[in-house]
## 1
Amino acid sequence: MNHVNLWMNKGEYNLEEVYYHEQDGLYYCKKCHTPIETYFQEKEKGKHPCMCKCRRDEYEKKEKERKMREHEESVNRLRQEAFSGRRLYDWKFENSIADNKQIEVAKKYAATWTEMEQENQGLLFMGDVGRGKSFAAACVVNAVIEQEVRAKMINIATVINDLQTLSQESRNSYIQKLCRYQLLVFDDLGAERGTDFAREQVYNVVNARWETGRPFIVTTNLTLKEMQNEEHMVLKRIYDRVLDVCRPVVFLGENYRASGRKNQLEMVQNLWRNMQ
């Protein structure tokens, strides 16, 4: 019921929709039997309109729907900004095939994001290829995006390639932009080991982020021992920054990527056999 239908003309109620209650001198909605007007705090000043229960419920429902739409639009924008491709949009905890301590750590981190942000606490996901490190990091990003947090997940090789094409001034702007995200994920640390340029640029990015006091997550195939015992000065400085603020989480177990390829191969083979 539209609230305006309660009125015929200004100051006149639609008596098909309301009725007068003699006991308190107020008009009530016929649908929900609650007042559509109320007295001012100083009663002698008279009455003013108010929402009856059914109208208030309708208003609150529409407000909830509006806020949900705005939230979904905001999350979609943030997700587009966070990832380089749509493939990672579905890398969420509810889609995980793993049920292990590493995923639980990632879940807890996302669930306590406000505290983690305040304490500048990051994570270092370590392990061999295909153990689910990047998946877990993307899950964290998707989870905090649901809290409308600005986040970015970027591969170290992409950082190097991007910076290689830029002038020094543009490189500084690029790094500053990365540092403005509330959460930043450096995926596949270790790709910088090839050249002096790559190492220096990755140090500049990691150090700039470290100096902001904002948290970041790192994934790497390197072991903790390799990072702690690194002798190359630039790499050592990179890893010292990471280990200073990121809690190591070691991913063990099966190679999910290889398992997925094996399953795909078996599906193709079965399909081929059925066609014979």
Note: Residues 96 and 160 are 30 Å apart (CA to CA).
## 2
Amino acid sequence: MYDKYQSPLSERYASSEMQYIFSPDKKFKTWRKLWIALAETEKELGLPVTQEQIDELKAHAEDINYEVAKERERLVRHDVMSHVYAYGQQCPKAKGIIHLGATSCYVGDNTDIIIMAEALGLVRRKLINVMAELAKFADRYKGQPTLAFTHFQPAQPTTVGKRATLWLQELCLDLEDLDHVLGSLKLLGSKGTTGTQASFLELFEGDHEKCRRADQMIAEKMGFSSCYPVSGQTYSRKVDTRVVNVLAGIAQSAHKFSNDIRLLQHLKEVEEPFEKNQIGSSAMAYKRNPMRSERIASLSNYVMSDVINPMLVASTQWFERTLDDSANKRLSIPEGFLAVDGILDLYLNVVDGLVVYPKVIEKHFMAELPFMATENIMMDAVKAGGDRQELHERIRRLSLEAGRNVKEKGLENNLLELIAADPAFGLSLEELKACMEPSRYVGRAPKQVEEFLEEVITPILEKNKMLLGMKAEIHV
């Protein structure tokens, strides 16, 4: 096992559940289910397919004779026909009706849609659980004042919980996109070699209605509401683009979250989980690097760049089909899903174990608060009889002086002392310090958190409560 390339997505990042969805076993068992659905449909629409043949196909739906298929493919160089042959070896009575009227894309493309739908379902479940954990975090820290940042410069304060709602809102947008794409997925159906259903029209002796019904019946047997009404040999490869765009959107949101956590960890205000025996650096034993957040960012970059693959494939398909999509699809679609699966496991793990340091947050907050409180101080001085324009100029000059003391001399922020010493303000140091209550400066942030959770998030979680309760398992 150590002498061949192994995808790190399988070895290090993706869950066993997602790996199985894209496994050969899942694919080939789905092929057999589609062949059974085709045979049942053809029987129900009057073709000479017997129940005995269908029962034989069902009896061997799961026990795939892989070695026979592999040996056959070495001979004929065609994966679908190799599996038709292998299935026929197990089902001699049904051998003649397997794949009747169909082309390779009947099993290949329909299976791709089925697998992407199932994989989107797993992504959705994990996304909902990340949202639930973020909601708990936002509620817990909705009233914890903290410096907000614009341009990574201290700005008007917010709360830790309010900042978490910004991460959460982006996941809401991702969920909307996911639900739209998942709800719009359709099967290819039984369209034939160029999408005209010519072979099925021949089988059904010119009965157009039976050709239409065959598509609908196959879709329903496979758990879909309908098939795409028109196609070439394949479903439009634009469908793959839409799916991967959803994955890239989730990756984008996760990347933003991971960036913020890494910056907060630098400030020592919030840290991702760090296990007892975890090593942060091979050289610097004291370090607690934000390795999981960095991994989220790294995998997210991969997924966001993966968007170009299905776009290139879709835009360069010739007429009813070319096969230059095949090798690309085998890589870009599964690996996009496996990477997002790993991202969401990491996201859930990080949120579930976030450590907040209120004392550090308060220290940073109080160091900047005098600057932010100047407007309130100025208004208090005006109420006491001061001139607003004169006080504005004085406070501007005193702020610059306090800033120089901090930046050039390394001193504490002494703006309050400078204002107290200026008789124009008529305020004592004690009166000024009374203005330094952090909760006075966070606006509606705590209430915004409550409203957002109550009006937006709680309905989503309540609607999806049967999906909750996941715990993230990460491998490294």
Note: The chain has 20 helices and four strands.
## 3
Amino acid sequence: MKIIFLGAPCSGKGTQADRLLKDFDIVHVSTGDIFRANISQGTPLGLEVRKYTENGLLVPDSLTVELVKDRLSKPDCQSKGFLLDGFPRTLSQAVALESFAKIDAVVNLCVSDEAILKRVSGRWMCKCGATYSVDTLGESRTCERCGGALYQRADDNPATMQKRLEVYNTSTLPLVEFYRGKGILVDINGENRTPDEIYLDIKEALKK
């Protein structure tokens, strides 16, 4: 199965993606991981990426697309399928993706801006990747998964998140209508529900 996850920052994509990867035994394809791997391996594409990242510049769409195309051509993605995380971010990337990969489903995790702004101030994270909500965490600030100390990201505040949401709504939301028009978009209510309830909806939708 070849899946794209869409959803605003702090909408719960990471939590649901972790479950999906385990249950469906597919490959997690993150653009951030691809950039880091190519840079550390000194590949020609990685050397190009480094020119931008070292100068604090955004990696151009054309280069990002080439990196994703290369990663999706690997045997693990070809045999198992994949979940795309962080790509596509723009309509032009989505159009380019169609030239080298056929997507089976696009999961759109729907959470209102108001709920996200309220949620962000109560989000705690661990270096292992686990995330927690202050509503369920209680007084503990220790990761249940690895025992590490939890922390809050510097950009997890309403003012910064408002700017991130504006960027998302401008550049990424058009993807929702793009994939809805293709009949492969699945809207999932991610607000005021438990992670288990949300995941059950995702799992059932993908089975169909």
Note: Strands lie at 2-7, 27-30, 82-85, 105-110, 123-125, 131-133, 185-189.
